Amino acid sequence: MKILFDTSSLINLWQAGASFLKKLGASTTVEVAEELQYAIGIYESRQLLEGIEVLQSRKAKPEQRGLSGTDASLLRTAKESESFLASDDKKLLGTARSSRCSCGNTPQLIESLSQKISKAEAIEILEKLKFTYPRKKILESTLQRVRKW
Within the chain, which residues score under 50 in pLDDT? Predict the structure, then answer.
């Protein structure tokens, strides 16, 4: 599974200390990499993006109105590359789902990685997300399912 990350998901995983991104063959876009520099700083963003492929994004199609330019381009890139779009942006996820793009939020992504990360690592990341992740119900239900792996 190819995974394309948006800014919100990368920041949440960075705050939780997730170190498995390099193992995933993960990617993001140039615009997301630029947003990360503003959000967490140049040094931190370079460390976070180490081992993550940074792609040129595809120009957004007109029907993707309502999304920021970065989000619309990210969605088009995910669809064209047939990648799973990892995002914690409700509007982007809703648009992605209606466009039939494979997508999910950070807890759902972690849950889907049962073949790539250990149960202990998944639980540790989800526990750390409790301090910063805004949607507590989603996080708790995902954590309960992961504990049953």
Answer: none
Domains, the chain, ordered by start: 3-147 (3.40.50.1010)
Asked if 74 contacts 83 with a C-beta cutoff of 8 angstroms, the reply is: no
Q: Are 30 and 111 in contact (CB under 8 A)?
A: no
CB 18 within 8 A of CB 97: no
Provide the 10 A C-beta neighbour count for residue 114. 13
The token duo for 132 is 């910063």
* Model pLDDT for residues 109-124, shown as the tens digit of each residue: 999 998 889 999 999 9
Give CA–CA dist 124/120, Å, rounded. Answer: 6
Q: Two tokens at 98?
A: 């209606």
Q: Give CA–CA dist 92/11, Å, rounded.
A: 16
